[in-house]
Amino acid sequence: AQSVTQLGSHVSVSEGALVLLRCNYSSSVPPYLFWYVQYPNQGLQLLLKYTSAATLVKGINGFEAEFKKSETSFHLTKPSAHMSDAAEYFCAVSDSYTGNQFYFGTGTSLTVIP
Amino acid sequence: KAGVTQTPRYLIKTRGQQVTLSCSPISGHRSVSWYQQTPGQGLQFLFEYFSETQRNKGNFPGRFSGRQFSNSRSEMNVSTLELGDSALYLCASSTAWTSGRTYNEQFFGPGTRLTVL
After folding, report:
1. Which candidate, A94, A110, A111, A91, places its Cα nearest to that of A102?
2. Alpha-carbon distance B26 to B39, whole Å?
3. How far does B110 lie from chain A, in Å, by closest CA?
4. Per-residue model confidence as pLDDT tens digits over B70-110
5. Cβ contacts (< 8 Å) between A94 and chain B: which residues?
6. What angle (nearest 5°) sits at the alpha carbon of residue B9, between those of residues B28 and B25?
7. Which of A86, A103, B42, B81 lies most in the core, judged by the most C-beta atoms within 10 Å?
8. pLDDT digit string (tens) for B14-42?
9. Is B60 within 8 Å of chain A by CB?
10. Do B92 and A100 make contact, defined as CB atoms within 8 angstroms?
């Protein structure tokens, strides 16, 4: 069975500072991993995905994540936070057997301080 | 291409009533999945439909049901509403997926906010 743990339900960073949102996964088979962002009163927007190609994945809005199998991690980073990055971020896992059934983490709310 | 649309965007119901939510996937997408999002439980998978058949089902009571039409549009129904059913219900569509095949990206709609009083 798959599961995702997001460490830190709330993260605050200063504008221009590094953003680091943590995600650890559990999967008995090679996983597909995703980061989604959700703005207030909106659905989920895909930031980036890992589907067994390059371990360093670049996404939209300057975000990237690195798949580390030895650490079962897929942390999301952005070198310099912008005010518009304030949102809820979700990590999710699926695999080639469960396909469209995603398992989501509990989310991390990112606050950017001016 | 138009995105995933969900109607209505907001609903207020009282306990014991039933409700039907609608989801129109992206044109050409045949898979529709439903998720419930609450502050306490986060995002939880309800079920997935593909070609009018339910393929996967999450751990929800039988009061939650769904269906998919031949044009891939999907509805979900919740009967005998409870206060705990208050949530944002998200629909996601994808082109297709076959066991063992590579991943196909899912696209999410804006959700329907259901409030049960």
Report:
1. A94
2. 28
3. 4
4. 999 999 999 999 999 999 999 999 886 655 555 667 899 99
5. 103
6. 5
7. A103
8. 999 999 999 999 998 989 999 999 988 88
9. no
10. yes
